[in-house]
Amino acid sequence: MANRDFQARHLETLDRDLGRFSNLELATGYVTRPMVGFGIALVFVVLAALAAALLLGQTPNAMVVVVAAALGAYMALNIGANDVANNMGPAVGAKALTMGGAILIAAVCETLGALLAGSDVVDTISKGIIGPGTLGTPEQFIWAMMAALLSSALWVNCATWIGAPVSTTHAVVGGVMGAGIATAGFGAVAWPTMGAIAASWVISPLLGGIVAAGLLWFIKARIIYRPDKIAAARLWVPVLVGVMAGTFALYLVMKGLKAVVTVSPVVAGVVAIGVGVAVWLLMIPVIRRQSKGLENRNKSLKVLFAIPLIVSAALLSFAHGANDVANAIGPLAAIVAASQGAGVGDAVAIPFWVMLIGAVGISFGLFLFGPKLIRMVGSQITKLNPMRAYCVALSAALTVILASWLGLPVSSTHIAVGAVFGVGFFREWDSERRLRNMRMALPSRPQLSPEERRRRKLVRRSHFMTIVAAWIVTVPMTAGLAAAVVAGIRTVAG
Protein backbone atom coordinates (compact mmCIF):
# COMPACT_ATOMS: atom_id res chain seq x y z
CA MET A 1 0.00 0.00 0.00
CA ALA A 2 2.78 2.41 0.96
CA ASN A 3 4.65 1.43 -2.19
CA ARG A 4 1.61 2.22 -4.35
CA ASP A 5 1.21 5.63 -2.63
CA PHE A 6 4.87 6.38 -3.28
CA GLN A 7 4.52 5.43 -6.94
CA ALA A 8 1.38 7.58 -7.30
CA ARG A 9 3.15 10.59 -5.74
CA HIS A 10 6.17 9.95 -7.95
CA LEU A 11 4.01 9.82 -11.10
CA GLU A 12 2.16 12.95 -10.04
CA THR A 13 5.47 14.78 -9.58
CA LEU A 14 6.66 13.50 -12.94
CA ASP A 15 3.45 14.67 -14.67
CA ARG A 16 3.84 18.09 -13.07
CA ASP A 17 7.46 18.35 -14.25
CA LEU A 18 6.55 17.21 -17.75
CA GLY A 19 3.76 19.81 -17.77
CA ARG A 20 6.28 22.51 -16.90
CA PHE A 21 8.53 21.37 -19.74
CA SER A 22 5.57 21.40 -22.13
CA ASN A 23 4.63 24.94 -21.09
CA LEU A 24 8.26 26.01 -21.46
CA GLU A 25 8.37 24.49 -24.95
CA LEU A 26 5.15 26.29 -25.96
CA ALA A 27 6.42 29.59 -24.57
CA THR A 28 9.74 29.18 -26.39
CA GLY A 29 7.92 28.43 -29.63
CA TYR A 30 5.71 31.49 -29.18
CA VAL A 31 8.69 33.75 -28.52
CA THR A 32 10.85 32.41 -31.35
CA ARG A 33 8.09 32.20 -33.99
CA PRO A 34 8.58 35.81 -35.17
CA MET A 35 12.31 35.13 -35.53
CA VAL A 36 11.64 32.44 -38.15
CA GLY A 37 10.34 35.06 -40.57
CA PHE A 38 13.36 37.29 -40.00
CA GLY A 39 15.65 34.30 -40.49
CA ILE A 40 14.06 33.36 -43.81
CA ALA A 41 14.17 37.00 -44.94
CA LEU A 42 17.85 37.22 -44.05
CA VAL A 43 18.58 34.04 -46.03
CA PHE A 44 16.81 35.54 -49.06
CA VAL A 45 18.83 38.76 -48.83
CA VAL A 46 22.07 36.76 -48.57
CA LEU A 47 21.09 34.58 -51.56
CA ALA A 48 20.35 37.71 -53.62
CA ALA A 49 23.81 39.05 -52.78
CA LEU A 50 25.43 35.70 -53.63
CA ALA A 51 23.60 35.60 -56.96
CA ALA A 52 24.99 39.03 -57.81
CA ALA A 53 28.47 37.91 -56.78
CA LEU A 54 28.30 34.79 -58.98
CA LEU A 55 26.97 36.66 -62.01
CA LEU A 56 29.11 39.79 -61.77
CA GLY A 57 31.99 38.69 -59.57
CA GLN A 58 34.67 39.33 -62.19
CA THR A 59 33.44 42.79 -63.22
CA PRO A 60 34.58 46.16 -61.85
CA ASN A 61 32.62 47.45 -58.85
CA ALA A 62 31.40 43.90 -58.15
CA MET A 63 31.22 44.49 -54.40
CA VAL A 64 29.05 47.58 -54.92
CA VAL A 65 26.60 45.54 -57.02
CA VAL A 66 26.53 42.77 -54.38
CA VAL A 67 25.59 45.27 -51.67
CA ALA A 68 23.03 46.88 -53.97
CA ALA A 69 21.47 43.45 -54.68
CA ALA A 70 21.10 42.85 -50.95
CA LEU A 71 19.44 46.26 -50.53
CA GLY A 72 17.15 45.63 -53.50
CA ALA A 73 16.09 42.29 -51.99
CA TYR A 74 15.47 44.00 -48.65
CA MET A 75 13.31 46.65 -50.35
CA ALA A 76 11.34 43.98 -52.24
CA LEU A 77 10.59 42.19 -48.96
CA ASN A 78 9.26 45.43 -47.50
CA ILE A 79 7.08 46.15 -50.52
CA GLY A 80 5.51 42.70 -50.14
CA ALA A 81 4.99 43.22 -46.42
CA ASN A 82 3.38 46.65 -46.78
CA ASP A 83 2.04 47.51 -50.23
CA VAL A 84 0.27 44.25 -51.15
CA ALA A 85 -2.08 44.56 -48.16
CA ASN A 86 -4.00 47.23 -50.06
CA ASN A 87 -5.07 44.66 -52.66
CA MET A 88 -5.85 41.70 -50.41
CA GLY A 89 -6.94 43.40 -47.18
CA PRO A 90 -10.53 44.17 -48.25
CA ALA A 91 -11.17 40.61 -49.50
CA VAL A 92 -9.82 39.12 -46.25
CA GLY A 93 -11.68 41.63 -44.09
CA ALA A 94 -14.90 40.78 -45.93
CA LYS A 95 -14.23 37.05 -45.32
CA ALA A 96 -14.36 36.34 -49.04
CA LEU A 97 -10.84 34.92 -48.70
CA THR A 98 -8.93 33.31 -45.86
CA MET A 99 -5.56 34.77 -44.95
CA GLY A 100 -3.78 31.75 -46.45
CA GLY A 101 -5.81 31.92 -49.66
CA ALA A 102 -5.18 35.65 -50.00
CA ILE A 103 -1.43 35.24 -49.54
CA LEU A 104 -1.30 32.40 -52.08
CA ILE A 105 -3.29 34.29 -54.73
CA ALA A 106 -1.37 37.51 -54.16
CA ALA A 107 2.02 35.78 -54.27
CA VAL A 108 1.20 34.07 -57.59
CA CYS A 109 -0.34 37.18 -59.19
CA GLU A 110 2.36 39.56 -57.94
CA THR A 111 5.10 37.28 -59.28
CA LEU A 112 3.37 36.82 -62.64
CA GLY A 113 2.76 40.55 -62.92
CA ALA A 114 6.38 41.36 -62.16
CA LEU A 115 7.92 38.72 -64.46
CA LEU A 116 5.46 38.84 -67.38
CA ALA A 117 4.47 42.49 -67.45
CA GLY A 118 7.07 44.28 -65.32
CA SER A 119 8.68 47.22 -67.06
CA ASP A 120 11.84 46.15 -68.85
CA VAL A 121 13.24 49.69 -69.04
CA VAL A 122 13.57 52.25 -66.26
CA ASP A 123 15.05 55.73 -66.14
CA THR A 124 18.26 55.81 -64.17
CA ILE A 125 17.03 58.93 -62.37
CA SER A 126 13.76 57.77 -60.90
CA LYS A 127 10.66 59.61 -62.17
CA GLY A 128 12.52 62.76 -63.23
CA ILE A 129 13.11 63.89 -59.64
CA ILE A 130 16.80 64.63 -60.19
CA GLY A 131 18.17 66.31 -63.27
CA PRO A 132 20.26 63.81 -65.33
CA GLY A 133 23.37 65.97 -65.36
CA THR A 134 23.41 67.03 -61.72
CA LEU A 135 24.95 63.96 -60.08
CA GLY A 136 28.13 64.16 -62.13
CA THR A 137 30.24 61.01 -62.00
CA PRO A 138 28.91 57.42 -62.07
CA GLU A 139 30.36 56.90 -58.58
CA GLN A 140 28.24 59.74 -57.16
CA PHE A 141 25.19 58.36 -58.92
CA ILE A 142 25.77 54.84 -57.57
CA TRP A 143 26.13 56.05 -53.99
CA ALA A 144 23.01 58.22 -54.34
CA MET A 145 20.95 55.25 -55.59
CA MET A 146 22.32 53.04 -52.79
CA ALA A 147 21.31 55.66 -50.23
CA ALA A 148 17.84 55.94 -51.80
CA LEU A 149 17.35 52.15 -51.66
CA LEU A 150 18.48 51.82 -48.07
CA SER A 151 16.52 54.81 -46.74
CA SER A 152 13.26 53.86 -48.47
CA ALA A 153 13.54 50.23 -47.34
CA LEU A 154 14.19 51.24 -43.73
CA TRP A 155 11.21 53.59 -43.68
CA VAL A 156 8.80 51.09 -45.23
CA ASN A 157 10.04 48.52 -42.71
CA CYS A 158 9.35 50.95 -39.86
CA ALA A 159 5.89 51.79 -41.24
CA THR A 160 5.02 48.09 -41.45
CA TRP A 161 6.13 47.61 -37.86
CA ILE A 162 3.83 50.40 -36.59
CA GLY A 163 0.97 49.15 -38.79
CA ALA A 164 0.77 51.99 -41.33
CA PRO A 165 0.30 51.23 -45.05
CA VAL A 166 2.46 53.78 -46.88
CA SER A 167 3.33 54.48 -50.51
CA THR A 168 6.54 52.69 -51.45
CA THR A 169 6.69 54.90 -54.54
CA HIS A 170 6.76 57.99 -52.33
CA ALA A 171 9.41 56.34 -50.16
CA VAL A 172 11.68 55.81 -53.19
CA VAL A 173 10.93 59.34 -54.41
CA GLY A 174 11.97 60.79 -51.05
CA GLY A 175 15.12 58.68 -50.98
CA VAL A 176 16.19 59.80 -54.45
CA MET A 177 15.42 63.43 -53.59
CA GLY A 178 17.40 63.37 -50.33
CA ALA A 179 20.38 61.61 -51.94
CA GLY A 180 20.34 64.13 -54.80
CA ILE A 181 20.27 67.10 -52.43
CA ALA A 182 23.11 65.67 -50.31
CA THR A 183 25.18 64.97 -53.43
CA ALA A 184 24.55 68.03 -55.62
CA GLY A 185 22.52 70.54 -53.58
CA PHE A 186 18.92 71.74 -53.71
CA GLY A 187 19.27 72.82 -57.32
CA ALA A 188 19.48 69.16 -58.37
CA VAL A 189 15.82 68.54 -57.53
CA ALA A 190 13.03 69.06 -60.05
CA TRP A 191 10.77 70.92 -57.62
CA PRO A 192 7.67 71.09 -59.87
CA THR A 193 7.72 67.28 -59.95
CA MET A 194 8.04 67.16 -56.17
CA GLY A 195 5.17 69.62 -55.83
CA ALA A 196 2.95 67.38 -57.93
CA ILE A 197 3.91 64.39 -55.78
CA ALA A 198 3.08 66.33 -52.62
CA ALA A 199 -0.31 67.23 -54.12
CA SER A 200 -1.02 63.52 -54.56
CA TRP A 201 -0.98 63.10 -50.76
CA VAL A 202 -4.31 64.93 -50.76
CA ILE A 203 -5.63 64.01 -54.21
CA SER A 204 -5.17 60.23 -53.95
CA PRO A 205 -7.07 59.42 -50.73
CA LEU A 206 -9.78 61.99 -51.45
CA LEU A 207 -10.45 60.58 -54.93
CA GLY A 208 -10.39 57.00 -53.66
CA GLY A 209 -12.69 57.80 -50.74
CA ILE A 210 -15.21 59.77 -52.83
CA VAL A 211 -15.45 57.10 -55.54
CA ALA A 212 -15.79 54.26 -53.00
CA ALA A 213 -18.45 56.17 -51.02
CA GLY A 214 -20.36 56.89 -54.24
CA LEU A 215 -20.31 53.21 -55.20
CA LEU A 216 -21.51 52.16 -51.74
CA TRP A 217 -24.30 54.76 -51.90
CA PHE A 218 -25.40 53.33 -55.25
CA ILE A 219 -25.44 49.74 -53.92
CA LYS A 220 -27.39 50.79 -50.83
CA ALA A 221 -29.90 52.87 -52.81
CA ARG A 222 -30.45 50.39 -55.63
CA ILE A 223 -30.13 47.05 -53.84
CA ILE A 224 -29.84 47.05 -50.04
CA TYR A 225 -32.68 49.48 -49.24
CA ARG A 226 -35.08 48.00 -51.81
CA PRO A 227 -38.11 45.99 -50.57
CA ASP A 228 -37.15 43.02 -52.79
CA LYS A 229 -33.35 42.92 -52.42
CA ILE A 230 -32.90 39.71 -54.43
CA ALA A 231 -34.81 41.03 -57.46
CA ALA A 232 -32.79 44.26 -57.32
CA ALA A 233 -29.57 42.25 -57.05
CA ARG A 234 -30.48 40.20 -60.13
CA LEU A 235 -30.79 43.44 -62.07
CA TRP A 236 -27.81 45.42 -60.77
CA VAL A 237 -25.13 42.92 -59.72
CA PRO A 238 -24.45 41.80 -63.34
CA VAL A 239 -24.16 45.48 -64.29
CA LEU A 240 -21.72 46.15 -61.44
CA VAL A 241 -19.62 43.10 -62.28
CA GLY A 242 -19.58 44.16 -65.93
CA VAL A 243 -18.38 47.64 -64.91
CA MET A 244 -15.70 46.03 -62.78
CA ALA A 245 -14.57 43.76 -65.64
CA GLY A 246 -14.41 46.65 -68.11
CA THR A 247 -12.55 48.82 -65.62
CA PHE A 248 -9.95 46.18 -64.89
CA ALA A 249 -9.55 45.43 -68.60
CA LEU A 250 -8.79 49.11 -69.16
CA TYR A 251 -6.53 49.19 -66.07
CA LEU A 252 -4.51 46.17 -67.20
CA VAL A 253 -4.19 47.30 -70.81
CA MET A 254 -3.13 50.83 -69.88
CA LYS A 255 -1.09 50.16 -66.73
CA GLY A 256 -0.43 46.51 -65.89
CA LEU A 257 0.45 45.25 -69.40
CA LYS A 258 2.14 48.36 -70.75
CA ALA A 259 5.47 46.52 -70.92
CA VAL A 260 3.94 43.76 -73.07
CA VAL A 261 1.67 45.71 -75.40
CA THR A 262 1.18 49.41 -76.11
CA VAL A 263 -2.23 50.50 -77.38
CA SER A 264 -3.88 53.86 -77.94
CA PRO A 265 -6.48 55.13 -75.45
CA VAL A 266 -9.21 54.62 -78.08
CA VAL A 267 -8.32 50.96 -78.58
CA ALA A 268 -8.04 50.46 -74.81
CA GLY A 269 -11.49 51.99 -74.37
CA VAL A 270 -13.01 49.74 -77.05
CA VAL A 271 -11.44 46.67 -75.40
CA ALA A 272 -12.77 47.75 -71.99
CA ILE A 273 -16.31 48.31 -73.29
CA GLY A 274 -16.27 44.96 -75.10
CA VAL A 275 -15.08 43.08 -72.04
CA GLY A 276 -17.56 44.88 -69.78
CA VAL A 277 -20.57 44.14 -72.00
CA ALA A 278 -19.53 40.50 -72.47
CA VAL A 279 -19.13 39.93 -68.72
CA TRP A 280 -22.43 41.72 -67.99
CA LEU A 281 -24.32 39.42 -70.36
CA LEU A 282 -22.49 36.37 -69.02
CA MET A 283 -23.27 37.24 -65.40
CA ILE A 284 -27.05 37.64 -65.88
CA PRO A 285 -27.77 33.85 -65.85
CA VAL A 286 -25.00 33.24 -63.29
CA ILE A 287 -26.44 35.70 -60.76
CA ARG A 288 -29.97 34.43 -61.44
CA ARG A 289 -28.81 30.90 -60.65
CA GLN A 290 -26.81 31.96 -57.56
CA SER A 291 -29.73 33.95 -56.15
CA LYS A 292 -32.26 31.11 -56.29
CA GLY A 293 -33.51 30.25 -52.81
CA LEU A 294 -31.76 33.17 -51.09
CA GLU A 295 -33.61 34.94 -48.31
CA ASN A 296 -34.59 38.57 -48.79
CA ARG A 297 -31.99 40.03 -46.41
CA ASN A 298 -28.62 41.76 -46.56
CA LYS A 299 -26.64 38.69 -45.54
CA SER A 300 -27.80 36.85 -48.67
CA LEU A 301 -26.32 39.55 -50.90
CA LYS A 302 -22.80 38.77 -49.70
CA VAL A 303 -22.81 35.52 -51.68
CA LEU A 304 -23.28 37.39 -54.95
CA PHE A 305 -20.27 39.70 -54.45
CA ALA A 306 -17.75 37.16 -53.14
CA ILE A 307 -16.35 35.82 -56.43
CA PRO A 308 -16.12 39.25 -58.16
CA LEU A 309 -14.26 40.51 -55.10
CA ILE A 310 -11.72 37.66 -55.23
CA VAL A 311 -11.13 38.18 -58.96
CA SER A 312 -10.67 41.93 -58.47
CA ALA A 313 -8.11 41.34 -55.70
CA ALA A 314 -6.16 38.98 -57.96
CA LEU A 315 -6.16 41.45 -60.85
CA LEU A 316 -5.06 44.30 -58.59
CA SER A 317 -2.16 42.15 -57.37
CA PHE A 318 -1.12 41.36 -60.96
CA ALA A 319 -1.16 45.04 -61.89
CA HIS A 320 0.70 45.95 -58.69
CA GLY A 321 3.43 43.41 -59.42
CA ALA A 322 3.78 44.79 -62.94
CA ASN A 323 4.00 48.43 -61.86
CA ASP A 324 5.54 48.60 -58.40
CA VAL A 325 8.28 46.00 -58.73
CA ALA A 326 10.33 48.88 -60.19
CA ASN A 327 10.35 50.51 -56.74
CA ALA A 328 12.55 47.66 -55.53
CA ILE A 329 14.69 46.90 -58.55
CA GLY A 330 14.71 50.17 -60.53
CA PRO A 331 17.53 51.72 -58.49
CA LEU A 332 19.29 48.31 -58.39
CA ALA A 333 19.13 48.01 -62.19
CA ALA A 334 20.45 51.55 -62.52
CA ILE A 335 23.37 50.73 -60.20
CA VAL A 336 24.18 47.58 -62.19
CA ALA A 337 24.15 49.56 -65.45
CA ALA A 338 26.23 52.43 -64.04
CA SER A 339 28.80 49.99 -62.63
CA GLN A 340 29.15 48.50 -66.13
CA GLY A 341 29.78 51.86 -67.77
CA ALA A 342 26.28 53.10 -68.75
CA GLY A 343 25.75 56.86 -68.75
CA VAL A 344 24.03 58.50 -65.79
CA GLY A 345 21.19 59.85 -67.90
CA ASP A 346 20.66 56.71 -69.99
CA ALA A 347 17.70 54.36 -69.84
CA VAL A 348 18.75 50.85 -68.84
CA ALA A 349 17.38 47.37 -69.43
CA ILE A 350 16.55 45.36 -66.32
CA PRO A 351 18.42 42.01 -66.26
CA PHE A 352 16.24 38.98 -65.59
CA TRP A 353 18.05 38.10 -62.36
CA VAL A 354 17.33 41.60 -61.04
CA MET A 355 13.63 41.27 -61.97
CA LEU A 356 13.57 37.86 -60.27
CA ILE A 357 14.91 39.35 -57.04
CA GLY A 358 12.09 41.88 -57.07
CA ALA A 359 9.35 39.37 -57.90
CA VAL A 360 10.41 36.70 -55.41
CA GLY A 361 11.18 39.29 -52.73
CA ILE A 362 7.69 40.79 -52.93
CA SER A 363 6.15 37.31 -52.57
CA PHE A 364 8.40 36.40 -49.63
CA GLY A 365 7.68 39.70 -47.89
CA LEU A 366 3.95 39.16 -48.30
CA PHE A 367 4.13 35.58 -47.00
CA LEU A 368 6.37 36.36 -44.02
CA PHE A 369 5.19 39.77 -42.86
CA GLY A 370 2.08 40.69 -44.87
CA PRO A 371 -0.70 39.40 -42.56
CA LYS A 372 -0.29 42.31 -40.12
CA LEU A 373 -1.06 44.98 -42.73
CA ILE A 374 -3.69 42.81 -44.43
CA ARG A 375 -5.60 42.67 -41.13
CA MET A 376 -5.11 46.40 -40.62
CA VAL A 377 -6.53 47.38 -44.02
CA GLY A 378 -9.18 44.66 -44.06
CA SER A 379 -10.72 44.83 -40.62
CA GLN A 380 -9.08 47.23 -38.17
CA ILE A 381 -9.85 50.56 -39.89
CA THR A 382 -13.54 49.82 -40.42
CA LYS A 383 -15.66 46.69 -40.78
CA LEU A 384 -15.93 45.42 -44.34
CA ASN A 385 -18.32 42.99 -45.98
CA PRO A 386 -18.20 41.80 -49.64
CA MET A 387 -20.26 44.77 -50.89
CA ARG A 388 -18.07 47.36 -49.14
CA ALA A 389 -14.85 45.57 -50.11
CA TYR A 390 -16.07 45.43 -53.72
CA CYS A 391 -16.49 49.22 -53.61
CA VAL A 392 -12.90 49.59 -52.36
CA ALA A 393 -11.45 47.36 -55.11
CA LEU A 394 -13.42 48.98 -57.92
CA SER A 395 -12.65 52.44 -56.56
CA ALA A 396 -8.90 51.70 -56.66
CA ALA A 397 -9.01 50.75 -60.34
CA LEU A 398 -11.42 53.53 -61.37
CA THR A 399 -9.46 56.22 -59.54
CA VAL A 400 -6.08 55.22 -60.99
CA ILE A 401 -7.56 55.31 -64.50
CA LEU A 402 -9.32 58.63 -63.88
CA ALA A 403 -6.17 60.18 -62.43
CA SER A 404 -4.04 58.94 -65.35
CA TRP A 405 -6.54 60.42 -67.81
CA LEU A 406 -6.49 63.78 -65.99
CA GLY A 407 -2.70 63.69 -65.64
CA LEU A 408 -2.82 63.73 -61.84
CA PRO A 409 0.00 62.07 -59.87
CA VAL A 410 -1.56 59.60 -57.46
CA SER A 411 -0.51 56.76 -55.16
CA SER A 412 -2.29 53.40 -55.43
CA THR A 413 -1.67 52.84 -51.71
CA HIS A 414 -3.28 56.14 -50.76
CA ILE A 415 -6.20 55.46 -53.11
CA ALA A 416 -6.94 52.01 -51.68
CA VAL A 417 -6.65 53.05 -48.04
CA GLY A 418 -8.55 56.27 -48.77
CA ALA A 419 -11.31 54.12 -50.28
CA VAL A 420 -11.50 52.10 -47.05
CA PHE A 421 -11.80 55.33 -45.08
CA GLY A 422 -14.39 56.63 -47.56
CA VAL A 423 -16.54 53.53 -47.07
CA GLY A 424 -16.27 53.84 -43.29
CA PHE A 425 -17.05 57.56 -43.13
CA PHE A 426 -19.97 57.13 -45.54
CA ARG A 427 -21.39 54.43 -43.28
CA GLU A 428 -21.09 56.81 -40.32
CA TRP A 429 -22.87 59.57 -42.24
CA ASP A 430 -25.58 57.19 -43.46
CA SER A 431 -26.09 55.82 -39.95
CA GLU A 432 -26.42 59.35 -38.52
CA ARG A 433 -28.87 60.30 -41.29
CA ARG A 434 -31.08 57.30 -40.62
CA LEU A 435 -30.92 57.99 -36.88
CA ARG A 436 -32.05 61.59 -37.43
CA ASN A 437 -34.93 60.41 -39.59
CA MET A 438 -35.94 57.93 -36.90
CA ARG A 439 -35.91 60.67 -34.25
CA MET A 440 -38.13 62.86 -36.43
CA ALA A 441 -40.56 59.95 -36.87
CA LEU A 442 -40.40 59.03 -33.15
CA PRO A 443 -39.75 62.22 -31.13
CA SER A 444 -40.25 60.38 -27.84
CA ARG A 445 -37.26 58.09 -28.54
CA PRO A 446 -34.49 58.74 -25.93
CA GLN A 447 -31.40 60.64 -27.13
CA LEU A 448 -28.01 58.92 -27.25
CA SER A 449 -25.37 60.12 -24.80
CA PRO A 450 -22.12 61.63 -26.20
CA GLU A 451 -20.22 58.55 -24.98
CA GLU A 452 -22.59 56.23 -26.85
CA ARG A 453 -22.30 58.35 -30.00
CA ARG A 454 -18.50 58.11 -29.85
CA ARG A 455 -18.74 54.35 -29.32
CA ARG A 456 -20.81 53.99 -32.46
CA LYS A 457 -18.18 55.60 -34.69
CA LEU A 458 -17.47 53.18 -37.54
CA VAL A 459 -13.92 54.34 -38.35
CA ARG A 460 -11.17 53.92 -35.77
CA ARG A 461 -9.72 57.40 -35.33
CA SER A 462 -6.42 56.19 -33.87
CA HIS A 463 -5.62 54.22 -37.03
CA PHE A 464 -6.74 57.15 -39.17
CA MET A 465 -4.33 59.55 -37.46
CA THR A 466 -1.43 57.06 -37.50
CA ILE A 467 -1.79 56.35 -41.21
CA VAL A 468 -2.22 60.00 -42.24
CA ALA A 469 0.82 60.99 -40.17
CA ALA A 470 2.88 58.23 -41.81
CA TRP A 471 1.80 59.44 -45.27
CA ILE A 472 2.82 63.02 -44.50
CA VAL A 473 6.29 62.18 -43.19
CA THR A 474 7.20 59.49 -45.78
CA VAL A 475 8.98 61.75 -48.28
CA PRO A 476 10.78 64.01 -45.74
CA MET A 477 11.72 60.99 -43.60
CA THR A 478 13.26 58.99 -46.46
CA ALA A 479 14.90 62.14 -47.83
CA GLY A 480 16.54 62.81 -44.46
CA LEU A 481 17.65 59.20 -44.11
CA ALA A 482 19.14 59.17 -47.61
CA ALA A 483 20.99 62.44 -46.99
CA ALA A 484 22.39 60.99 -43.76
CA VAL A 485 23.54 57.85 -45.57
CA VAL A 486 25.30 59.90 -48.27
CA ALA A 487 27.00 61.99 -45.57
CA GLY A 488 28.08 58.81 -43.81
CA ILE A 489 29.52 57.39 -47.03
CA ARG A 490 31.49 60.58 -47.62
CA THR A 491 32.87 60.47 -44.09
CA VAL A 492 33.97 56.83 -44.41
CA ALA A 493 35.42 57.39 -47.89
CA GLY A 494 37.37 60.34 -46.53
Automatic annotation (TrEMBL):
The chain crosses the membrane at residues 35-56, 62-84, 96-117, 141-164, 171-191, 197-219, 231-253, 259-282, 303-322, 350-369, 389-406, 412-429, 464-489. Its main location: membrane. GO terms for cellular component: membrane. It is found in: Membrane. The keyword ATP-binding does not apply. One of its GO terms (molecular function) is phosphate transmembrane transporter activity. Keywords: Membrane, Phosphate transport, Transmembrane, Transmembrane helix, Transport. It is a multi-pass membrane protein. It comes from the Bacteria. Belongs to the inorganic phosphate transporter (PiT) (TC 2.A.20) family. This is Phosphate transporter. The lineage of its organism: Bacteria, Pseudomonadati, Pseudomonadota, Alphaproteobacteria, Rhodobacterales.
